[in-house]
């Protein structure tokens, strides 16, 4: 269970598998039209908020810091995931690989855990849909992972170029409203300060 919990934190589900419902398929969201993959995958994104239905609105899940740094080598995107749990000092690393398609905002990333600089798991498919982004400040996405026996768990997440959950771009609410949500429906995943990576 600890391995699953760590893996879910790493890839963007950010909670125990029992805290979100399992579904037979990932949900289908309309992605941002004509996504500029080069602009989107430039630099580092930090997780600030996630939709986790079984956690009370407005409550922090726990103090976690998740960073996704991308290295673009068209048409391939290499992603390095760093998850820190400030309360325990635990740091978990992972890798992801995406093959870009021009203008496409729906991706299948292949991700795996890394321990001591070596792969610690096989690659697993991870579905990502970028619903909205301005490339420089925020991104709203749907992220879905096959957790066990073709049962999927997914979440809506807000990513920022800053790890400060209070620095939310005003357009985030507009994007969330289009899918029937508001920022107060999501929980902050950060408690305290996250160090910059």
Automatic annotation (TrEMBL):
InterPro entries: Calycin. Keywords: Signal. Residues 1-19 form the signal peptide. It comes from the Eukaryota. This is Uncharacterized protein. It comes from Rhynocoris fuscipes. The lineage of its organism: Eukaryota, Metazoa, Ecdysozoa, Arthropoda, Hexapoda.
């Amino acid at each position: 269970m600890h391995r699953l919990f760590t893996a879910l934190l790493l890839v963007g589900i950010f909670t125990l598998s029992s805290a979100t419902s399992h579904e037979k398929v990932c949900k289908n969201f309309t992605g941002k039209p004509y996504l500029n993959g080069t602009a989107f995958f430039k630099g580092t994104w930090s997780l600030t908020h996630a939709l986790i239905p079984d956690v009370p609105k407005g409550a922090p899940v726990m103090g976690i810091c998740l960073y996704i740094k991308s290295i673009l080598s068209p048409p391939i995107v290499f992603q390095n995931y760093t998850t820190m749990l400030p309360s325990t000092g635990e740091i978990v690393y992972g890798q992801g690989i995406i093959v870009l398609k021009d203008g496409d905002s729906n991706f299948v990333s292949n991700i795996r855990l890394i321990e001591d600089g070596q792969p610690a798991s096989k690659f697993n498919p991870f579905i990502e849909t970028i619903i909205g982004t301005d490339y420089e400040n925020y991104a709203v996405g749907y992220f879905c992972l096959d957790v066990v026996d073709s049962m999927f768990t997914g979440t809506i997440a807000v990513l920022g170029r800053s790890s400060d959950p209070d620095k939310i771009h005003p357009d985030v609410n507009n994007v969330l409203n289009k899918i029937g949500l508001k920022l107060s429906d999501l929980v902050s995943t950060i408690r305290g300060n996250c160090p910059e990576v």
